[in-house]
Amino acid sequence: MSYSIGEFSALSAVSVHTLRYYEKERLLIVRRDTRGRRMYVPEDLDWIRFIRKLKETGMPIRNIREYATLRYEGEHTLSQRLGILRQHRRRVLEEKKRWEANLANIEKKIGFYEEKLSGGVGKNPA
User: Fold this and answer.
1) Is 33 left (phi over 0), alpha (psi -120 to 50) or beta?
2) Rounded distance, CA 23 to CA 37, Å?
3) Which one is predicted more confidently, 111 or 121?
4) Which of the four pLDDT bands, split at 50, 70 and 90, describes residue 126?
5) pLDDT tens string 80-99
6) Tell me: the pLDDT tens digits for 65-78?
7) What is the chain's mean pLDDT, rounded?
8) In this structure, what are the phi and psi dihedrals at residue 47, rounded to the nearest 5 degrees?
9) What is the CATH number of the domain that holds 35?
10) Neighbours of 33 (CB within 10 A)
C-alpha cells in the first residue's frame, strides 16, 4: 500500500510543506512512481512520528539528518545510531534538570503569593 503526499499528510498530521521540507533536508527518502509522484508507505509513518519526537525533544535538524542518513544506510549503522540517541538523551536529561529547577522556583513564588493572599506573612523567595 502506498499514499500520495496529500493522503500521507492527512494520515500523519504533518503538512505537505513539512513533508517536502523533510525530503529536501534528507530526513526522509520518498519513493516515487513511474511518473515521479511521491509514494509514501506505512513504514514512513513510523519514521515521521520518530522524527517529530526527536524535534520535540530539541534534537537539531543536522543531528536528525545524520541519524536519518545512517538509518537509510542499513543495520550496519546500529551502533552509530545508538550513540547519537545516547548523546541526545544526555542533553534531554540535562535540559530536564534545568526545567525542574526553574519549576521549583516558580512553585516557591506561587506558594509565597498564595500564603500572602491568605493573610500569611511568608518570606519573599525573590
Assistant:
1) beta
2) 13
3) 111
4) low
5) 999 999 999 999 999 999 99
6) 999 999 999 999 99
7) 94
8) -65, -45
9) 1.10.1660.10
10) 10
9: Cβ–Cβ under 8 A, 6 or more apart, which residues? Answer: 15, 16, 19
The answer to whether position 117 is within a domain reads no
User: Three-class SS of residue 113?
Assistant: helix
SS3 content of the chain, % helix, strand, coil (to 5): 70, 5, 25
Residue range(s) defining the domain that contains residue 43:
5-73
Residues 57-66 pLDDT 10s: 999 999 999 9
SS3 122: coil
Looking up cell 542518513 gives: 69
User: How far is 19 from 35, CA to CA, in rounded Å?
Assistant: 19
- Give the whole-angstrom CA distance, residue 10 versus residue 32: 19
**Secondary structure class of 112 (helix, strand, coil):** helix
**Residue 123 domain-assigned (yes or no):** no
Report the half-sphere exposure of 21 (CA within 13 A, side-chain side): 9
